TrEMBL record:
<keyword id="KW-0004">4Fe-4S</keyword>
<dbReference type="InterPro" id="IPR011604">
    <property type="entry name" value="PDDEXK-like_dom_sf"/>
</dbReference>
<keyword id="KW-0411">Iron-sulfur</keyword>
<keyword id="KW-0378">Hydrolase</keyword>
<keyword id="KW-0547">Nucleotide-binding</keyword>
<keyword id="KW-0238">DNA-binding</keyword>
<dbReference type="InterPro" id="IPR006554">
    <property type="entry name" value="Helicase-like_DEXD_c2"/>
</dbReference>
<protein>
    <submittedName>
        <fullName>ATP-dependent DNA helicase</fullName>
    </submittedName>
</protein>
<keyword id="KW-0408">Iron</keyword>
<dbReference type="InterPro" id="IPR045028">
    <property type="entry name" value="DinG/Rad3-like"/>
</dbReference>
<dbReference type="InterPro" id="IPR010614">
    <property type="entry name" value="RAD3-like_helicase_DEAD"/>
</dbReference>
<dbReference type="InterPro" id="IPR014013">
    <property type="entry name" value="Helic_SF1/SF2_ATP-bd_DinG/Rad3"/>
</dbReference>
<keyword id="KW-0347">Helicase</keyword>
<keyword id="KW-0413">Isomerase</keyword>
<dbReference type="InterPro" id="IPR027417">
    <property type="entry name" value="P-loop_NTPase"/>
</dbReference>
<keyword id="KW-0234">DNA repair</keyword>
<keyword id="KW-0067">ATP-binding</keyword>
Length: 764
């Protein structure tokens, strides 16, 4: 049996030593890195060999990779690294890792061409100055060969173990049967469509109603496709924590008990956010401050070995293993992502600008199946991932207490900011610029470099962690700078102005993504197959256009297992919830809700377009109907408060919970049976009309000719259907939904509502 490993992977496994150090260091972007490599290799002679493929064998292990460049005349092999700031501040263990890479390439080259010795060079290119710094040494072939053999031997036992795991995994998945006696209505169709997408290597949009078991219905066929289509990994991506839990539970069901390898040799990893996994949030993330970062790479092999003995590596299990080995749970999970078969995590792990799973898939050349849960959320989440903004108020706050070395670049940026205000003759509160202002952006880039140098010097000197506000400004600025490098028709550069204290004019400058397709398309292209599913995923063209899916991506709707007899849908054509009509709507809405409650007492949810509207109707309802229990969603509720809100919905409960449409309780909430018997959806859910949304509408109209639908109608109705979907969760449920707004009677809205609903004529 032949086992294959890339040089980068081999080094990452065998050559890392010492502390984990996550202090901020200004790293070049991927585009800057590629441009830097091209710049350096372009400076070399005509005989210089670029991207040199190399391969060698040790036993059954094949090591392969591409060396950055080789000068045959000088017998000099180069590994090129781009950087920002003072090279002397680079940690020793990072440079040792770079030397390990070039030495492995050197050993492979000596084997291939019979060289007795080679000059090896680490070439560091400063992106800001375009200046090269070369560290070089000459090695005999025998020394390089010994280095290669040592590292291969260290990796080989692990590679054999992983190969045996893959064989056992694939055999178990071939024999895997559906864990229940039968599929739910519609679930088989869902599973067959998912398997076909994985088998044919394409993307698929699946609209499937709530309650049919979408999580299990997509995971089961994706796992069956792993051995049959030689897939390496499944990534299950969610928008919210409840989606992760459902996926982990479904995987446990598929694996038997899901706890140990004895159940099924399938490693499942849960990735959680850093702030939720951190054991020492009061400490900086490096060995001098945090005990779990100190010697992290020295203790990692034992922790990794212990972890892969388990099948279910959820948040709790990873934490348990990490603390037993005195390593950081968050970064242990990041390492385990290399060695697990199914990874469950947030969208950002695959789709954002620094997505770890996407980078791993590209680096390892994995064939992955990507499952995107509640995929309607990816449009707005995608926009957020590729949007960045800066506020002048933050800059002014920094100017009051930054170190002296930063005052000049801060003042230079503020001058350019003031010039932007001075150029605005109309004194508009909101305006869209032609693009990133050149002089302002140049000043921002110089400030970013100055702050980066300051932070690096502070870290090298061992001084306490920098002012959090300075670091936050730096990271926001760096994100904005990088987004401007890819600025185009997919984004806007806009300015919000407002008055400040003592006549100061403040503004917020934003590189705002309008069309996430420009960035997400490359993520979908990197996956072997992608299945996006949700109860609200139509029209298909809308999601294909905005998410960057191929134009031929099929859209499929799974028939609902529910019948019109289960849900009474009533429309209130006599009530307008438009902003100007809201004061007049309060009493009619309260009256309608009270009448429904008296007709059938029980638990209801009422959804509103904003907290302000919610509070107005709740106040009127309490005033006129004090006998009905009421509880309200509050602004910025923490997890405990959200759970307390949901705990009111018990089977024998009575009352109405007031919530915000599109908020925490409008999707991903499962209250079957008598826990919830009805919902009031107050307003059509259209996004607020404001200058930003209007710009969005204009840009989408220019790109697709459907500005109003894409900016307002489709997102609004999607929220309505999600909220109404809380009522019927099982084939045994019965309930009522009131759609309160005269616009629900319009034909263009009716056709976007679920086909299985039976709509009343829209009376009063």
């Amino acid at each position: 049996m032949t086992l294959t490993v890339a040089v980068r992977t081999l080094c990452a496994f065998t050559a890392r030593r010492g502390d984990l150090d996550r202090r901020f260091t200004p790293a070049p972007s991927a585009q800057e890195g590629m441009a830097g490599h091209a710049l350096v290799t372009g400076r070399r002679g005509a005989d210089y060999q670029r991207e040199l493929p190399l391969e060698g064998r040790h036993g059954e292990l094949v090591v392969r990779g591409r060396a950055d460049g080789f000068d045959p005349a000088r017998r000099r092999l180069e590994e090129i690294k781009t950087h920002r700031g003072d090279l002397a501040l680079m940690p020793d263990n990072q440079r040792a890792l770079h030397w390990a890479q070039v030495k492995l390439y050197g050993a492979l080259l000596c084997r291939e061409r019979g060289h007795a010795e080679l000059t090896l060079a680490l070439v560091y290119l400063d992106i800001a100055t375009q200046r090269e710094t070369a560290l070089e040494a000459t090695f005999e072939a025998a020394e390089l060969e010994a280095f290669l053999v040592e590292h291969c031997a260290r990796f080989l036992a692990w590679a054999r173990q992983e190969a045996a795991h893959r064989v056992a995994r694939d055999a178990a998945l071939e024999a895997l049967g559906f864990p229940h006696a039968a599929f739910r209505p519609g679930q088989r169709e869902l599973a067959e469509a998912t398997y076909k997408a994985a088998a044919t290597g394409r993307a698929l949009l699946l609209e499937a109603p709530t309650g049919i078991g979408k999580t299990l219905g997509t995971l089961f066929p994706a796992l069956k496709a792993l051995p049959r289509r030689r897939l390496d990994r499944v990534f299950f991506l969610t928008a919210k924590t409840p989606g992760r839990r459902l996926a982990l539970d479904a995987l446990a069901t598929l694996a038997g008990d899901g706890a140990e390898v004895s159940a099924m040799p399938l490693r499942v990893l849960e990735l959680v956010a850093r702030d939720k996994a951190c054991e020492h949030p009061d400490k900086a993330c490096h060995g001098e401050a945090c005990p779990l970062a100190r010697g992290f790479y020295d203790r990692l092999p034992a922790a990794r070995e212990a972890a892969v003995r388990h099948a279910r590596l959820d948040r709790e299990r990873v934490r348990e293993i990490a603390l037993a080995h005195d390593v950081c749970p968050y970064y242990l999970a990041q390492e385990l992502a290399r060695w697990c078969d199914v990874v469950v995590g947030d969208y950002n792990y695959y789709f954002d600008a620094h997505a770890m799973l996407h980078a791993l898939a590209r680096e390892q050349e994995w064939r992955v199946a990507v499952l995107v849960d509640e995929a309607h959320n990816l449009v707005e989440r995608g926009r957020g991932m590729y949007t960045a903004e800066l506020d002048r108020a933050e800059l002014l706050a920094l100017k009051r207490h930054v170190p002296g070395a930063l005052r000049r670049p801060l003042e230079a940026l503020d001058r350019q900011w003031r010039a932007l205000h001075a150029d605005d003759e109309a004194d508009a509160a909101y305006r869209v610029l032609d693009g990133p202002p050149t002089q302002w952006l140049g000043a921002l880039q110089r400030l970013v470099q100055a702050i980066a140098d300051h932070l690096a010097e502070a870290a090298a000197a061992g001084t306490p962690m920098a002012d959090p506000a300075l670091l936050a400004f730096m990271l926001d600025a760096l994100q904005l700078v990088r987004l401007t490098e890819r600025f185009g028709a997919h984004s806007l550069f806009d300015c919000h102005e407002r008055p400040g204290r003592r006549g100061t004019r403040l503004s917020r400058l934003c590189c705002r993504n309008v069309l996430p397709a420009a960035f997400l398309a490359e993520r979908f292209a990197a996956a072997h197959a992608a299945v996006l599913f949700s109860a609200t995923l139509g029209p298909g063209a809308y999601y294909r256009d905005l998410l960057g899916l191929p134009a031929d991506t099929p859209w499929q709707a799974v028939l609902s297992p529910f019948s019109a007899a289960q849900l009474t849908v009533r429309r209130s054509a006599h009530i307008s919830t438009r902003y100007a009509d809201r004061p007049a709507s309060l009493t009619p809405i309260a009256t309608l809700m009270a009448e429904q409650y008296r007709a059938r007492p029980g638990n209801y949810l009422a959804f509103f377009s904003s907290h302000a509207y919610l509070e107005q109707v709740a106040g009127r309802f309490r005033e006129h109907h004090p006998e009905v229990p009421v509880w309200c969603q509050q602004r910025r509720m923490d997890e405990a408060a959200r759970q307390a809100f949901l705990d009111r919905f018990v089977a024998d409960g009575r009352g109405i919970g007031f919530a915000v449409l599109g908020g925490a309780f409008a999707e991903g909430v499962d209250l079957p049976g008598e826990r919830l018997i009805g919902a009031f959806v107050v307003t059509l859910g259209l996004p607020q009309v404001n200058p930003v949304t209007e710009q969005l509408r204009e840009r989408l109209a220019a790109l697709f000719g459907r500005g109003y639908d894409y900016a307002y109608l489709y997102p609004g109705v999607q929220k309505v259907v999600q909220a109404a979907g809380r009522v019927i969760r099982t084939p045994a449920d019965r309930g009522v939904v009131h759609l309160i707004d005269d616009r629900f009677c319009r034909r263009e809205v009716e056709r976007l509502l679920p086909a299985w609903w039976r709509l009343d004529p829209g009376g009063g």
